[in-house]
Amino acid sequence: MIDASAKRAVVLVSGGMDSAVTLALAREQGFTCHALSVDYGQRHASELAAAERVAKMLGAVEHKTVHVDLRSIGGSALTADIEVPTAHSAGIPVTYVPARNTIMLSVALGWAEVLGAVDIHCGVNAVDYSGYPDCRPEFVEAFERLANLATKAGVEGHRLTVHAPLIRLTKADIVREGRRLGVDFAATVSCYTADAQGRACGACDACRLRREGFVAAGVADPTRYRDPAGA
Q: Which of 23, 114, 166, 184 is the most exposed place for a label (fewest CB within 10 A)?
């Protein structure tokens, strides 16, 4: 049974800065937020500990981590023994994880139905990003259409909405928005090769984009680096 008055939402929380800002925005908009993280076998597992911190810090009513073994199929530097590049390259990089956002949104969709929620929030971004095809507006729009075709809720007229509030923002815009919302970016982890303590390498694409966002926003970077001299 859908309870429209509850204004529940499932928010995908990875532990990175974008999903933290997405959760803060959903809370500001009055949603009761159920935070969802996916342990898909990623090498930067410390982001999952960050996700738990972020969910508590930003007022999610609960936080669930679902396990999906994408390491068993590999195909990405984040789920297989492929070196994470430290130089930006043209095209879709080897850090792209096949079907990751499709799977994460599908799990979020299933939980939303169970909760009686019709809103799903995700932090995908198509401006300052690594070029992943599943971060584009076309993908989000297509998944929303799928969600309304593939679910009992959608068929019964309870329209599901996929919110991607950061999709057209620059990293600097995201930093500024997070600052406005009181997000503690020091609690987040973005690095593809973060160590067990969540310290960043400072060299991968995720670190580069994050660092450039703080610089462009004129905000001090609170990221903890393994080698501060190389940050």
A: 114
Q: For the chain, what are the domain ranges?
A: 4-224
Distance of alpha carbon 176 from alpha carbon 182, whole angstroms = 10
Residue 209 three-state SS = helix
Contacts of 168 (CB under 8 A, 6+ apart): 126, 127, 137
CATH classification of 4-224 is 3.40.50.620, yes or no?
Answer: yes
Tell me which residue of 204, 221, 227 sits closest to 17, measured CA to CA: 221
Give me the sign of the Cα torsion angle 173, 174, 177, 183: negative
- Tens-digit pLDDT profile for residues 70-85: 999 999 999 999 999 8
* Nearest one of 121, 162, 125, 168 to 24, comparing CA atoms: 121
Q: Which residues face 67 on adjacent strands? A: 39
Rounded CA separation 13/120 (Å): 11
Q: Encoding tokens for residue 65?
A: 């981590």
Alpha-carbon distance of 15 to 224, in angstroms, equals 14
Cα–Cα distance between 208 and 205 in angstroms, integer? 5
